[in-house]
Design a protein that fits this description.
Number of strands: 10
Bound molecules: flavin-adenine dinucleotide
Number of domains: 3
Largest sheet: 4 strands, mixed
Distance between the termini: 17 Å
Helix content: 40-55%
Number of helices: 11
Order of helices and strands: HHHHHHEEEEEEEEHEEHHHH
Shape: globular
Oligomer: single chain
Length: 386
């Protein structure tokens, strides 16, 4: 494995870093305090070419590799977990799903505008009765002539307010007693679809977590992504990449915790000496740095596997998500602890990361589910740890 970068990769990552320093760093306090998703920065990210890193150039993307994308996400994650998340969402989840499974008409309508930051798409798979058990989803799409009628409720859906359409997983039929799911792209404003912002969560309203209700919502056949019954496979095809993206932004945010902690520990003087002198403070800082490096290399390794053409890396992607989100939780808790009462101020950068870190251990497969996935893979293969 060689993670050295070409001049093109370095230029792209440097441009992302400069974008984040120019557009995100000076504004992150304000949009977090205003509790809103900064759609104006999202649009600028599209103009700067940050939203389709791995999408081929023919469809308006940058046509670059996964390692470059993860390094880019890391740069943005240093300043804002929510904005770095939309790179993964657009490049890996919605973008790759459209690129691989969309018709030309769907690509024209959604993929180009998505990469340019002109539109935003939400993913709606979780339902109130249990997100960890995706197969228990109750939302149904019933074929009626040349259209489908959707009924059901999706919960905890990010970017519900600002998104222009929702990619929703719905049950279309059963085969051998098992439900089969299909993805539909439902435009905002379609009669029968209602989007409601949920009460304020730990992440405040910055990622606009919503409930989406379908009540006899009729969509044309052209809204279906891929074949009937292919929904879970399409969703799973992009999950591994997005778990890698989770790891990348966590690694960036751990670096932010580390920088904050080093600066504070050196400047806070108690009993005539900086608190950096204390071994218990030093241990926290050493832990942060070590976990950051470990998270980074788990991310780069998975990205490298994907760039090498490995199609399924279920265990590695679960390891990245599990390790990096837990490491960020610990790093942010320690960073708050190092700053004492100051660190608990709602608007302090470390407090913001601490809140977001908890949500990262839950979103898109909880830590417990990732642990189960890793064990399942190991036990099924009978592999001996190497
Ligand atoms: C900020 C935020 C944004 C989100 N954005 C989106 C989005 O855009 N789109 C979307 O579709 N969803 C989204 N989600 C939902 C998220 O994916 C789910 O919350 C997650 O999958 C867990 O589902 P749940 O909350 O229903 O918990 P549950 O599935 O009810 O789990 C509850 C607890 O039980 C544990 N548990 C469950 N099964 C097992 C098991 N077999 N063994 C051991 N423990 C188990 C879980 O780990 C968890 O601790 C978001 C969530 C958050 C917090």
């Amino acid at each position: 494995m060689d993670f050295s970068l070409t001049a093109e990769q370095e230029d792209f990552i440097r441009a992302a870093r400069e974008f984040a320093e120019r557009e995100i760093a000076p504004n992150a306090d304000a949009y977090n305090r205003e509790e809103r998703f900064p759609i104006e920065i999202y649009r600028k990210m599209g103009k700067a070419g940050l939203l389709g890193v791995t999408i081929p150039k023919a469809w308006g993307g940058a046509g670059l590799d996964n390692v470059t994308m993860m390094r880019t996400i890391e740069e943005l994650g240093y300043h804002c977990l929510v904005l770095s998340a939309v790179i993964g969402l657009n490049s890996v989840m919605t973008g790759q799903q459209l690129y691989h499974f969309g018709t030309d008409a769907q690509k024209d309508k959604y993929l180009g505008p998505l990469i340019r930051g002109e539109i935003l798409l939400s993913i709606a798979s979780t339902e109130p009765q249990g997100g960890s058990d995706v197969a228990s989803a109750q939302t149904v799409a019933k074929r009626d002539g040349d259209s489908y009628v959707l009924n059901g409720t999706k919960k905890w859906i990010s970017y519900g307010v600002s998104s222009d359409a929702v990619m929703v997983l719905a049950k279309t039929d059963e085969r051998d007693g098992k439900p089969r799911f299909t993805i539909f792209i439902v435009d905002k404003g379609t009669p029968g679809m209602t989007v409601t912002l949920l009460p304020k969560m730990l992440t405040r309203h910055v990622d606009e977590v919503c409930e989406v209700v379908f009540d006899n919502c009729r969509v044309p056949e052209s809204a279906r992504l891929g074949n009937e019954g292919s929904g879970l496979a399409i969703m799973l095809s992009s999950l591994e990449g997005n778990r890698c993206a989770f790891g990348a932004r966590c690694a960036g945010a751990i670096r932010a915790c580390l920088d904050e902690s080093v600066a504070y520990a050196n400047s806070r003087v108690l009993r005539g000496a900086p608190i950096a002198r204390h071994q218990m403070i030093q241990a926290k800082i050493a832990d942060m740095a070590t976990n950051m490096e470990a998270a980074k290399y788990l991310v780069y390794h998975l990205a490298w596997l994907k760039d090498s053409g490995v199609e399924r890396a279920r265990m590695e992607s679960a390891m990245v998500k599990l390790f990096a989100t837990d490491a960020l939780m610990k790093a942010s808790a320690d960073a708050v602890q190092i700053q004492g009462a100051l660190g608990t101020l709602e608007d302090s950068p470390v407090c913001r990361i601490f809140r977001d870190a908890k949500a990262h251990q839950i979103m898109e497969g909880t830590s417990e589910i990732q642990t189960m996935l890793i064990a399942e893979q190991l036990l099924a293969s009978g592999a001996r740890a190497s």
